[in-house]
Write a structure and sequence with these properties.
This protein has 271 residues and is of the alpha/beta class. The protein has a single domain (39-269), classed as P-loop containing nucleotide triphosphate hydrolases (Rossmann fold), CATH 3.40.50. It has helices at residues 58-66, 88-93, 111-119, 137-149, 165-178, 195-208, 221-227, 245-250, 252-259, 261-269, and strands at 20-29, 32-42, 47-51, 73-78, 81-82, 96-98, 183-187, 213-217, 230-235, 238-243. The strands form 2 sheets. A 6-stranded mixed sheet has the order 6-7-8-3-9-10, with helices on both faces. Strand 9 and strand 10 (238-243) form a beta hairpin. Helix 3 crosses helix 4. The two termini are 33 Å apart.
């Protein structure tokens, strides 16, 4: 396991610190309050799905966590360290990485080149004009490993723009984990995929995030219940439930606010 995937321990209590914690997190745009005092603790290695109706504040929550937005109040802690107020690249270097709803890769670079770009900083290659990428054996080796992990080794030299949509999403996940972050945020990773592609992608996500803490925003309830250890339900900017999939499925507030008849249908069908 990557050493960055290990949870830190409190020097006072000896207990493992949450990988990610939100404390009374708030965000307003003008007079409109979008996030209204969100509280959440995600333990090391947990997979958490964030669900809720459109406009609930899920993407805003991701943007607050990853540093794209600055909170109007409250705190975001990564491995016990407050990170709100830091720039996104600074948060990334502390061990948090994210993907986006819209595929975000280098379209004119090959699969291999995309992944190699993703590993450079974590391997200590910062700003230099005196090294040729082809000579960086450790970076090349790590990129090859990631290519096999995301099952794109046969597309090594294919440009990102020429990949299928599902392959582009797989490459984006590869780039997201390339830097060795221990907290991964995936924003609707299976959106736009067929049922068979989605099924394969769930397996891929599970495989590449072993030992890491995962948060994902997802609308496909099959993905949510198939992937998550816990589910956080966001409604009108508040987290109204945070528990195991079984407990959330049975929560009357959640059924009324979001899941509705789909829960009853699933329960009747034994799923």
């Amino acid at each position: 396991m990557n050493p960055r995937a290990q949870g830190k321990t409190s020097a006072i209590t000896g207990a493992s610190l949450p990988s990610l914690e939100l404390r009374d997190l708030r965000k307003s745009f003008g007079k409109t309050e979008i996030i209204r005092g969100a509280n959440l603790k995600v333990q090391p290695g947990e997979r958490v799905a964030i669900i809720g109706p459109n406009g609930a504040g899920k993407s805003t929550l991701f943007n607050l966590i990853s540093g794209r937005f600055e909170p109007s109040g409250g705190e975001v802690l990564l491995n016990g360290q407050r990170i709100n107020g830091l720039k996104p690249f600074e948060i990334n270097r502390l061990g948090l990485s994210r993907s986006f709803q819209i595929t975000n890769i280098f379209p004119k670079l090959s699969v291999f080149e995309n992944l190699r770009c993703g590993v450079l900083w974590s391997l200590g290659y910062k700003y230099t004009l005196f090294k040729f990428l082809a000579d960086l054996d450790d970076a090349n080796r790590r990129a090859e490993e990631l290519m096999q992990m995301i099952r794109l080794d046969k597309k090594r030299d294919v440009l990102g723009i020429n990949l299928t949509y599902a392959e582009q999403r797989a490459l984006e996940i590869g780039v997201t984990i390339a830097g060795g972050a221990n907290v991964i945020l995936l924003d609707e990773p299976t959106a736009g995929m067929s049922r068979s592609e989605t099924s394969r992608f769930i397996g891929l996500i599970k495989e590449v995030t072993v030992g890491k803490t995962l948060l994902t925003v997802e609308h496909d309830m099959g993905v949510v219940f198939g992937l998550a250890d816990k589910i956080a339900v966001v409604v009108y900017g508040e987290i109204i439930a945070y528990d195991t999939p079984e407990a959330v499925r049975a929560d009357q507030r959640v059924q009324e606010a979001y899941l509705g008849s789909s829960v009853a249908d699933n329960q009747a069908g034994g799923h």
